[in-house]
Design a protein that fits this description.
With 309 residues, the protein is α/β, with parallel strands linked by helices. The protein folds into 2 domains: 3-194, Formyl transferase, N-terminal domain (Rossmann fold, 3-Layer(aba) Sandwich); 203-300, Formyl transferase, C-terminal domain (Methionyl-tRNA Fmet Formyltransferase, Chain A, domain 2). The protein is built from 8 helices and 15 strands. The strands form 3 sheets. It has a 7-stranded mixed beta sheet. Helix 5 packs antiparallel against helix 7. The radius of gyration is 22 Å and the shape is elongated. The relative contact order is 0.10.
Amino acid sequence: MNIVFMGTPDFAVPILEAVHKAFGVSLVVTQPDKVVGRKRVLTAPPVKKMAESLQIPVFQPQKIRREYEQILTIKPDIIVTAAYGQIIPKPLLDIKPYGAINIHASLLPSLRGGAPIQRAIMERHEKTGVTVMQMSEGMDEGDILLARAIPIAPRETTQTMHDKLSQLGKTLCLETIDALKQNAIKPVPQNDARATYAPNLKREEEHLDFRQGVFRIDAHIRAFYPKPNTYAILNGTNVKIIAAHPGEKNAKNAAPGSIISLDEGIHVACGEGVLTIDRLQWPGKKPLDAKTFMHGIGRNHLSVGMVFE
């Protein structure tokens, strides 16, 4: 089988490796290298690094909708995509005999869009999963080929869920390709009436609102870990809140955002309940656990009664 693989971030790496080992990949298509960090180092996407280690040719078009002819020249039987990051043009969707399939990190039609893992955690879903779909021109609207659910654990973060779903995606992708080869899979149309959406995270969503209940705030922090993280404003300074958990202390009618206690953690009143901050980061400093922070940087910046806004 002549396979073209299209993907970019870490999520797609185990899938690429498994597909190449099982079936062979003729070409990898990924996003262009990007400048990263304060030192502005030109950095290859994780999928490119894996492709090079597997000695697979790599193609990095700026705009795939204008630069797809190179893919057609190798006459692929199937295109496998996983978090590629650009809209796939129709000539690639229509290749014969298998077209293009996509590994999506949700149980479609729930959470169509670019941030399904983060949104599932933010919305406190009890489960999520992976769907392999036949790609269509609509965003994540294609027929379902295979899907499988897994639970979302109480302390799950985007990082832990990402890793689980990437491994599940690898398994389902291999099963789907096998089934397609044997003509043993029947596409199932999605029920558009049940569709929900998972838009990409917005900068303004990083700002915590302590007027919300503690469980919603806790889920918000876990959804934004490991990046971009959440923050709150303390005396005009943006402080990153990296890890926290619902606390057991009593807020005693304290205003939302108020620090009510400082001991092993930083205990902050919420609209309902108390959040215990476990790890945070002052601007320009390294992330620190709350106890270390309070005995160092935070010693001159934190006191009971101060308010995170």
